[in-house]
Amino acid sequence: MSPKKEYAISPKRSEDFPEWYQQVIAAADLAENSEVRGCMIIKPWGYALWERIQKQLDLRIKQTGHKNVYFPLFIPLEYLQKEAEHVEGFAKECAVVTHHKLEKRADGKLYPASPLTEPLVIRPTSETIIGAAFSRWIQSYRDLPLLINQWANVVRWEMRPRLFLRTTEFLWQEGHTAHANPEEARQEALSILNLYEEFIRSYLALPVVVGEKPESEKFPGADTTYTLEAMVQDRKAVQVGTSHFLGQNFSKANNIRFLDRNGKMEFAWTSSWGVSTRLIGTLIMAHGDDNGLVLPPTLSPLQVVILPLIKKEEEKPTILEFAEKLINQMEKLEFAGEKIRVEIDKREIGGGIKSWEWIKKGVPLRIEIGPQEISSGILTIKRRDKEVKEKEKLDLQQFLDKLPFLLSEIQQGIYSRAESFLKDHSRFIDTKEDFYEFFSSSDSSDKEIGGGFAYAHWDGSREVEEKLKEDLKITIRCIPYKSSYGDEPGICPFSGNPSKRRVIFAKAY
Amino acid sequence: MSPKKEYAISPKRSEDFPEWYQQVIAAADLAENSEVRGCMIIKPWGYALWERIQKQLDLRIKQTGHKNVYFPLFIPLEYLQKEAEHVEGFAKECAVVTHHKLEKRADGKLYPASPLTEPLVIRPTSETIIGAAFSRWIQSYRDLPLLINQWANVVRWEMRPRLFLRTTEFLWQEGHTAHANPEEARQEALSILNLYEEFIRSYLALPVVVGEKPESEKFPGADTTYTLEAMVQDRKAVQVGTSHFLGQNFSKANNIRFLDRNGKMEFAWTSSWGVSTRLIGTLIMAHGDDNGLVLPPTLSPLQVVILPLIKKEEEKPTILEFAEKLINQMEKLEFAGEKIRVEIDKREIGGGIKSWEWIKKGVPLRIEIGPQEISSGILTIKRRDKEVKEKEKLDLQQFLDKLPFLLSEIQQGIYSRAESFLKDHSRFIDTKEDFYEFFSSSDSSDKEIGGGFAYAHWDGSREVEEKLKEDLKITIRCIPYKSSYGDEPGICPFSGNPSKRRVIFAKAY
Ligand SMILES: [Zn+2]
Ligand SMILES: [Zn+2]
Q1: Which fold has domain B304-406?
Q2: Tens digits of per-residue pLDDT, B169-187?
Q3: Chain A residue with Cα closest to B58
Q4: Pick from B54, B39, B38, B124: which is nearest to B89 by CA?
Q5: Cβ separation A102–B77 shorter than 8 A
Q6: Where is the Aminoacyl-transfer RNA synthetases class-II family profile domain (chains A, B) (predicted)?
Q7: pTM of the entire structure?
Q8: Which of A492, B127, B269, B293 could be bridged to B362 by S-S, CB 3.0 to 4.6 A?
């Protein structure tokens, strides 16, 4: 028997995945719950992740011709009534502003005063208010395509909130576009889907399955909702982004009309798409381990942290000088088109505590520098993707030569591990029995864990969807978009009716 | 008589300044009112200005050791009650959320449903909710200083909104810090004041007067409010930023306590500070002219726009190729530490319309490129800070050599003009008669226009302040902070009582 291994996070993933997730967030100091139910406080390390996501995604959104704008937080209540399906979808979970003043009453307490004639809704998403502006801005085909995006906070009341994954207020980016014909609008929705996929693969090191949502899971008011579904380590799905082809639904509701090339008045075709702080929750659940967060080097706010090993005060100047020089040399190097991000942790706290902090925060590389490293010129490198105690010794020049390669190796390693995990837990299933077995683990240590992604035939009926939701809490995550994978017709194992192609079933967050 | 000059903006500044302001915003396509009263839609060119401000200011805030975070939009109503002055200041103008659902009634319309037990207030500023977190995060002097910042939207109900300058919802940055002693907290507030001043001077090309607010104009709950006051072209003041030393007021209200070095429990000293989208309104009013917006090159999203003069379709490829090469060469150059920002306007609309669009948007340099420019190798340069028709001819290499210098010249020119304006309309005033005359222009063409900044003595009483507010709509903008200017004692011209030093009186937005 080998000695019992110690981990930084308790419980381990295999013991209690949801609790492990909360503990990783606390250990990495990413966020915490505020006293307002469902609303989180994003702390510096968590917000730095969001800033990295914003920076990289914003670049891509701008490069494809979209301009950033800002629309009001408040939506007149009547706007939500304009699109029938949209009402049903969003009216349920809105924060409603009814007063615009507080007044102190006799008991010394504040009470809402000055009621609004028309209540205002905090935007759950901005299709309706942006649609109203589009109808003013768009007159002719010359005004099209209109391509805008905004970074904003939105509010959807959550009864069972979970940090990052499902919060009442969250941060996101929402793109809104209008086009002169349906092909172009659909193409827009699809090219954003590609953009998201590339970004999520290269910056979150996360493989995703892309496809269409079934009717039951569509965005309220969309013709087609395209989705990106990731698998996290309890084998559940997370919808990490969506892109909607809205057809003429919102342009009819908002009267977005234009004079086309032939002088005919026509309703525009629109799209909308977004990703949110949910990406951070997915990242944690997909890559984290029993020692905390694991960050892909492309995304990590810091790629290298230098930990000075100072035992005697008189060693300090030499060690810090050596470290500063090393930082200067590293900062001349690039990885993934950006300057390498490195910092020295000068805090006067124990080396062990300090080192564990950065492990829990998921920084890819740690370098310890003490008198021995300086005299020998040999650096001790520790990688977040290896065992905690594992070290690599490299002389200074070797290390500098190898640094971008090291980061790239870590990046690829994280991606590959997630990709293998996704493959290992994706399965073609052809009988109802196998399906129920797949999603009902008999292994008692595995209770919280769903089976993974089941590629199974489906007759297209709501009945089958509802039955599976009731029995197993399973939903159709998507009708995969890559046509080479499971797109042959077959028989629905639940009804015996014909099926056009396989769809992906999974438990989901 | 010279022929009548035509301007792009009607009315001119001298005719109707407030209306001119609205027209510049429309002509430059910066923003528009939404259907929600007091809430604006920031359009791409306006939002690009905000992004430039964010980028540069964020850099400076981070360089001085502050970390970005994100706190909830919602503040529990009871939080606002914690600090007595703060209640009085903010309770009046809050948006209050009272319900978290909408339900459809028999008439088919939506109504607020599911009332909240405790109403939520949309943050007018975040001292109270951040204070609650600080009280959890801070235990010991080792946790101090705590230096955070957030970029967020805030809401203060406005009865007389004006785009950018005063809107119900606005975008801003709010810094919040906690310190182990009062000196350090005050120093923080002052160094941020310096940071803002440097930023506003170098990026908005705007001179400001810095100083303290009198008691009556302080931030509700602050010990000292430091302010930056700019003068715009109708000679009114705009408060462009504030930095508050909060003493122990918020730490006592929120129980932010720490164990000091001597093992004694102590309340922390805090500061808070912010600038908002109001900076954009000030920029427009300070630098704009009768042809629209005028942007300082450091701030402008674009520094150079290339306008191809294509008369025949066959000239197009040569002209565009020439332009692209020119762009590549320009982008290798730097100005104010950043790559030069240049774009070509390829839209197929009339050259005159196109040129006027960029004039109205305030872009510093326009370059027209047609067959003549290509064959001669001589470029035609037009500067936004000169007359519309004025041009400079430079050969290609000369132009490239001179470009950073040209931008720097424009930058300095814009700053100098604003500085002269501020000086010309600032005056030491020693009698009540002169004071009233200064603020009561007898020139009828000047009706809307206040006198400027009056440096006058003040006895420190609320009576004088209230009388001047009533008679002239004049307030004390600040007690100037630079001690070399008007800080000798004297006699208050309004009461005859002694005065410690001169203060600045002005009309203000
Ligand atoms: Zn497994
Ligand atoms: Zn003047």
Answers
A1: Rossmann fold (3.40.50)
A2: 999 999 999 999 999 999 9
A3: A51
A4: B124
A5: yes
A6: 46-296
A7: 0.96
A8: B293
